[in-house]
């Protein structure tokens, strides 16, 4: 797994030097590929600020998910953040409000961050996928897990956020976020409990997504998993102490 992470991190550095393709203006095209008339973007063409990146994310049409989402949801937090938390994708409330982690999972995360001694205002929070993927069910919109292809297409945005913020530590929340960082599928269990060095000096801590805790029907096990989740966040804080 260490070799996989080194390989993925090297690829990330290469993508930073020769960035792939940026988002396009929102259209009704049915193609899932980037339009042929869209110019390739090198590093100088990519958004140079977090606010410009957020605007570009909202215009992204690189995969079909934009068609039904209310808006694209970019990361949130200071450029000086030393810790970046990466989740899976915006949920229903995130899609409506345009901010990451403001729904039920976000409230659980906020409480866990407080217990771990971390100030959300000093962290950068984002997702591996920037548009909400869901299935309509009456008036409700039920979450759907992004495909690996959708995660991989969206890595350009995540890589750019990493390049702008340059965090010392990355905390991945769930398997989708882990793939978004490494470009490879890996189990959280194999990564959890220790920090892994990434190319370029950043370190990676893998843990579960807070929505995982919300879905657990066994209250006793949910409490145990929540304790472990807070412990992972404490580990992240102490790594930077």
Name the beta content range: 5-15%
Strand order of the largest sheet: 2-1-5-7-6
CATH H-level name... which superfamily?
Uracil-DNA glycosylase-like domain
How helix-rich are the residues, as a percent range?
40-55%
Low-confidence stretches: 2-41
Order of helices and strands: HHEHHEEEHEHHEEHH
The assigned structural class equals alpha/beta
CATH architecture tag: 3-Layer(aba) Sandwich
Distance between the termini: 26 Å
CATH class: Alpha Beta
Give the overall pLDDT as a whole number.
86
Instruction: Output the radius of gyration.
Output: 17 Å
Q: What's the domain count?
A: 1
> Can you summarize the main beta sheet?
5 strands, mixed
- What is the CATH topology classification name? Uracil-DNA Glycosylase, subunit E
Short description:
The chain is 41% helix and 12% strand. The chain has 241 residues and is an alpha/beta fold.
